[in-house]
Amino acid sequence: MHNFEDELTCPICYSIFEDPRVLPCSHTFCRNCLENVLQASGNFYIWRPLRIPLKCPSCRSIIEIASTGIESLPVNFALKAIIEKYQQEDHPDIVTCPEHYRQPLNVYCLLDKKLVCGHCLTIGQHHGHPIDDLESAYLKEKDTPQKLLLQLTDTHWTDVTRLIEKLEEQKLHSERMVQGDKEIVLQYFKELSDTLEQKKNFFLTALCDVGNLISQEYTPQIERMKEIRAQQLELMTLTTSLQKEPPLKFLEKVDDVRRRVQILKQRPLPEVQPVEIYPRVSQVLKEEWCRTEIGQIKEVLIPEMKISSRRMPLSWPDKDEKVEFLKILNIVTVTLISVTLMLVLFFNQHIITFLNEVTSVCFSKVSLFVYQSFSNNLYDLKDRLCHTLYLLKEFMWKIISR
Predict the structure, then answer these.
(1) Residue 107, beta-bridge partner list
(2) Helix (H) or strand (E) holding 170
(3) Which residues face 63 on adjacent strands?
(4) Residue that is last in its domain, among 100, 125, 144
(5) Which residue from 20, 179, 207, 273 has the highest number of Cβ atoms inside 10 Å of its Cβ?
(6) Is the domain of 263 the same as that of 281?
(7) Do 54 and 122 share a structural domain?
(8) Domain span at residue 7?
(9) Of 310, 395, 300, 379, which Cα lies nearest the Cα of 340?
(10) Can you spell out the DSSP letters for 7-30?
(11) Residue 167 lies in a domain
């Protein structure tokens, strides 16, 4: 079938014959191909002779055609019929050009090293390129695979294999490093999380202890006051029922009720004072923990939280002693306020800041422990002074308001 296809191909354009015309020497060519040959031979003049000479592209014999030109040559109807039938049939074993419909790839382009069809050479992108027939091109390239195999099996590919092994080894090493770093990160943040969880539990435990202290401070008083309230309600009921008693029963009970009421009213009542908690957690977190580096979290101490429930006695000074007492109290108050301000301004802002900066760089863990203990004690002292000032202020207010 491949040879049959060659028979249907024009030897000039290497395409399937289009309008095949037969020369007197019996060679057939496309009508357009013969027109181009005739035009290239320079045999067209303003006036035309009776006969036009034409050299056959195949046998090179000089033939004469009528003055009407190529149109006077007879059509090869037999070949044309065969071509039409060939084009109507499917030929799966024949490779055709992807750019030109049903044109077989029957020429080898030497410039681009690929198979092309006749249209590619005449009107396509391979126009003017050097070509070769399939058989000659095959014979020239027949030994190429063996040469390529030699190139594909030389020492260069040994180096490629070694390079692949080295790259895979380096990749494995890098992946192990990354995996090791992942484990370090997980371990580091697990320890940090455990430390933070431990510190959080310490804080919550300290707050629970403070809550227990508050409960111990208030619960007995609340229970005692509830007891007094219950006795009051009981006496109110008893007093109301006395009004309904006959005179004899009334006289028997009234003195006992009076005595119980007097005893109940004479029971001392506790003075209601707010309980101060020191140090406050918000203050510790803001002033201490915010300045702590991550690596020092383990060494940060949880301060011992306390409550203050100091109550002033209800005995007040006489009016004659008031003026003298107020003078002394004012002097003490001014002195305490001055000391407190000095401690807050100088110790808390300057010395603690300085110690914190020096400690974070130079001090050892023992020095850090001493510093933190000093800082917590300073906070405790400041809270106690503030609480004392608060009590003095309340006391003065009560004196003045009397």
Answers:
(1) 116, 133
(2) helix 155-242
(3) 54
(4) 144
(5) 20
(6) no
(7) yes
(8) 2-144
(9) 379
(10) HTB-TTT-SB-SSEEE-TTS-EEE
(11) no
- Inter-residue contact 43 to 4 (CB < 8 Å): no
Residue 185 burial by Cβ neighbours in a 10 Å radius (0-12, 13-18, 19+): exposed
Nearest Cα to Cα of residue 130 among 116, 142, 144 = 116
- Per-residue confidence of the chain (402 residues) as pLDDT tens digits? 445 666 788 888 878 888 888 888 888 898 888 888 888 776 554 445 567 788 888 888 888 888 778 888 888 888 888 877 777 776 655 677 777 776 777 788 878 778 887 778 777 777 778 877 777 777 777 888 888 888 888 888 889 999 999 999 999 999 999 999 999 999 999 998 998 999 899 889 989 988 898 888 889 889 999 999 999 999 899 889 988 888 888 888 888 889 989 998 888 888 877 778 878 888 888 877 888 788 777 777 777 777 775 543 333 344 444 455 566 666 777 677 766 666 655 555 455 555 555 555 544 555 555 555 655 566 566 666 666 665 666 566 556 555
pTM over 0.85: no
Which residue is it, tokens 């031979």? 41
Start-to-end C-alpha separation, the chain: 132
Number of domains in the chain: 3
Total residue count of the chain as it appears in this document: 402
**Are residues 330 and 208 part of one domain?**
no
Domain of 43: which CATH number?
3.30.40.10
Residue 276 CA to residue 389 CA, distance in Å, equals 12
Same domain, 236 and 324: no
For residues 259 and 384, state if they share a domain. Answer: no
Do 134 and 187 reside in the same domain of the chain?
no
Same domain, 291 and 397: yes
Task: Say if 169 falls within a structural domain.
Answer: no
